[in-house]
Design a protein that fits this description.
This protein has one helix at residues 2-40. The protein is mainly α.
Amino acid sequence: MTDTIDENMVINSAGTVTNEISCMNALTICMGWSLFLIFLIPY
């Protein structure tokens, strides 16, 4: 029983980590695009 619980906890923690990484990537991409547009608008 404890083995399955530990495995589930490891899988859940890995899933949260991957979700955080994907969110960070999306935020960085949005920031990059916003800066790109801000620099493009004056020209």
